[in-house]
Amino acid sequence: MITFDDATVVYPGGVRALDGLSLEIPEGEFVVIVGLSGAGKSTMIRTVNGLVPVTGGSVTVGDRRVDQLGRAGTRQLRAEVGMIFQAFNLVERTSVLNNVLMGRLHHVPLWRSTLGLYGREDVEIAMQSLELVEIVEKAYVRASNLSGGQQQRVGIARALAQEPTVLLADEPVASLDPPTSHVVMKYLQEINRRLGITTLVNLHFLDLARKYADRLIGLREGQLVFDGPGSEATEEV
Ligand code: ADP
Ligand code: ADP
Question: Which PROSITE patterns match (predicted)?
């Protein structure tokens, strides 16, 4: 369970990006957050792993209040929370497999990962993650040789290799064309169904959100303006 309790984020300079947000996300839910650019979607999901600290209220993941974790606690939380980015954020001049192994960094001592000394188990988990997004045949291809949609599937695999309990996807399809966006959303949905990982996805296209959201959350100026099944969302969101 992820709990937002009157969660507020005021950035230095005074922008109120999140304004008294209260809601609960049960384990295993597939939540899509929609809103215009600047509505606070990125800020909202980044409070979950503490990348953006709340300035008021609280965010709780399981039994942990994110704002009360020390350095070690925050590191542990981030190990359990996978992130998927708009621009994929792959290291382009290395292989797909190496990129996915970076998801294992949280599980491997730094001296070993520095030397590229991942264990057999790490490689197996990385390959299984690539299988989940059906791109295992590209494991030894340079990441920059893949299309955008393929790169995002690798981004998803890297997050899965972390063995996360929560997945945060910040505008994961904003750099992709509509057909490819559907492919990526289908993988995210299917992974949620199969593995039961609580998933929060930011989107700015309402039609895409409606189609995939079990639960759709609408934000406007940092406030909750809709919370319900995707099928019931109107243009007002
Ligand atoms: P969205 O993801 O919905 O586009 P964001 O959460 O990125 O919205 O931004 C919400 C508001 O907070 C915007 O007005 C944005 O300019 C502002 N903002 C975001 N990040 C920062 C930051 N690091 N410092 C100051 N203002 C920020
Ligand atoms: P998005 O809306 O897709 O999240 P933006 O282009 O709004 O992305 O922001 C990109 C980056 O710049 C983010 O890391 C965000 O936190 C930061 N940012 C956004 N608005 C501001 C701002 N007004 N001041 C400082 N940083 C900002």
Answer: ABC_TRANSPORTER_1, ABC_TRANSPORTER_2
CA angle 211, 133, 195 (to 5 degrees): 75
Which residue has its alpha carbon closest to ligand 1 atom 24?
A: 11
Mean pLDDT by 10 residues, the chain (237 residues): 98 96 98 96 98 98 95 95 96 96 92 88 97 98 97 98 98 97 98 98 93 96 95 73
Q: Which two tokens stand for residue 209?
A: 């959100």
Q: Are 34 and 218 in contact (CB under 8 A)?
A: yes
CA 210/CA 188 separation, integer angstroms:
15
User: What's the 21 CA to ligand 1 centre distance in angstroms?
Assistant: 15
Cβ atoms of 145 and 139 closer than 8 Å: no
Counting from 1 in the atom list of ligand 1, the atom nearest the Cα of 44 is 6
Polymer length in residues for the chain: 237
CA of 179 relative to ligand 2 center, distance in Å: 27
| pTM confidence score | 0.91
